């Protein structure tokens, strides 16, 4: 006899329904547990990287990790290595500064300029022009003289003098110096300590454009820079010279083709890069 059609309307039905409910309840508990564990795992993934990225508070430049001179700073961006080139122009301001600024504006690129004190005195408005255009203005001494800067240890004194001049023109006191002739062998441990105490920094270069050598060939200057650019981080030494100005469009095009972006020196993210390998510079 079919239990459903007997006097017992309950029959097996309710029991079946009962066990079905129990099963559903168990299933929903399992499902909730599963959701909780998946949710927890996802939340952990969000929290975990933050813990790993916790930064160490750096109070002195000496604590900043030393950049390896092999230029191995690699930034990944969407899985692609980010390559950054810093164009650095020495020895201005000069008769060519305006043309260089115009060319950079044309190319929509910012650069870093290292100005000499006596040249600032001669053409102060060019300092303002460069700063207004968004370029970084760095310090390149008063005399540009090896003997005076390194043997007579006038490096810091001269850089601070230039810093003051730039501050009067732009309202900013730059911290970055470019040692005339490079930091090695001129910057001794003593000078390095003086530089650090004065809260100044030093940047040499990773690529010499050889524009001082190829005076008559913009083509060779451009070729030198483009051929030598290999690493994710390149600081390119340039001078305010006619051959350099003429080489500029080719340099920019060639570096872009190699995947470089252009950047200016950033005081908030100083990367020590000096030939004397002093971590406090
Ligand atoms: Zn120079």
Overall pLDDT confidence: 83
Give the overall shape, derived from the CA principal axes. globular
Write the CATH homologous superfamily of the largest domain: Glycoside hydrolase/deacetylase
What is the number of independent domains?
A: 2
GO molecular function, one term: hydrolase activity, acting on carbon-nitrogen (but not peptide) bonds
Pfam families: Polysacc_deac_1
Protein name: Polysaccharide deacetylase
Domain NodB homology: 83-263
What does this structure look like?
It is built from 9 helices and 9 strands. It is of the alpha/beta class and 281 residues long. The chain folds into 2 domains: 3-52; 68-269, TIM Barrel. Strands 1, 2, 3, 4, 7, 8 and 9 form a 7-stranded mixed β-sheet that branches. Strands 5-6 form a two-stranded parallel ribbon. α2 packs parallel to α9 and α8 (218-228) packs parallel to α9. The radius of gyration is 31 Å and the shape is globular. It starts with 12 loop residues before the first helix and ends in a 19-residue tail after the last strand. Bound molecules: zinc ion.
Quick summary of this structure?
With about 280 residues, the chain is an alpha/beta fold. The protein has helices at about 15-50, 95-105, 115-120, 125-130, 145-150, 155-170, 190-195, 220-230, 240-255, and strands at about 75, 80-90, 110-115, 135-140, 175, 200, 205-210, 235-240, 260.
Topology overview:
Layout: H1 13-52, E1 75-77, E2 80-92, H2 97-107, E3 112-115, H3 117-122, H4 124-132, E4 136-139, H5 146-151, H6 155-170, E5 176-177, H7 189-197, E6 201-202, E7 207-208, H8 218-228, E8 233-239, H9 242-257, E9 260-262
Parallel strand pairs: 2-3, 2-8, 2-9, 3-4, 5-6, 7-8
Antiparallel strand pairs: 1-2
Helix pairs in contact: 2-9, 8-9
Bound molecules: zinc ion (ZN).
Zinc ion (ZN) binds next to strand 2.
């Amino acid at each position: 006899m079919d239990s459903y059609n007997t006097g017992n309307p309950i029959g097996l039905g309710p029991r079946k329904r009962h066990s079905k409910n129990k099963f559903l309840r168990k299933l929903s508990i399992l499902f909730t547990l599963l959701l909780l564990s998946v949710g927890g795992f996802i939340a952990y993934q969000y929290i975990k990287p933050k813990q790993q990225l916790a930064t160490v508070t750096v109070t002195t430049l000496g604590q900043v990790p030393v950049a390896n001179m092999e230029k191995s700073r690699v930034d990944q961006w969407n899985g692609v290595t980010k390559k950054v080139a810093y164009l650095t122009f020495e020895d201005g301001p000069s008769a060519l500064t305006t043309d260089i600024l115009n060319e950079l504006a044309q190319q929509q690129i910012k650069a870093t300029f290292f100005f000499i004190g006596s040249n600032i005195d001669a053409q102060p408005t060019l300092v303002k022009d460069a700063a207004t255009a968004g370029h970084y203005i760095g310090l390149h001494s008063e005399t540009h003289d090896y003997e005076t800067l390194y043997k007579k240890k006038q490096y810091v004194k001269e850089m601070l003098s230039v810093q003051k001049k730039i501050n009067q023109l732009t309202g900013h006191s730059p911290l970055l110096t470019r040692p005339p002739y490079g930091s090695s062998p001129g910057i001794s441990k003593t000078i390095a300590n003086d530089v650090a105490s004065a809260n100044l920094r030093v940047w040499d270069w990773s690529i010499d454009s050889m524009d001082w050598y190829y005076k008559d060939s913009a083509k060779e200057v451009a070729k030198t820079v483009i051929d030598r650019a290999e690493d994710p981080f390149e600081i390119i030494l340039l001078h305010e010279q006619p051959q350099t100005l003429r080489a500029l469009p080719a340099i920019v095009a060639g570096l872009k083709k190699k995947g470089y972006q252009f950047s200016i020196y950033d005081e908030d993210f100083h990367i020590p890069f000096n030939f004397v390998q002093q971590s406090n510079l």
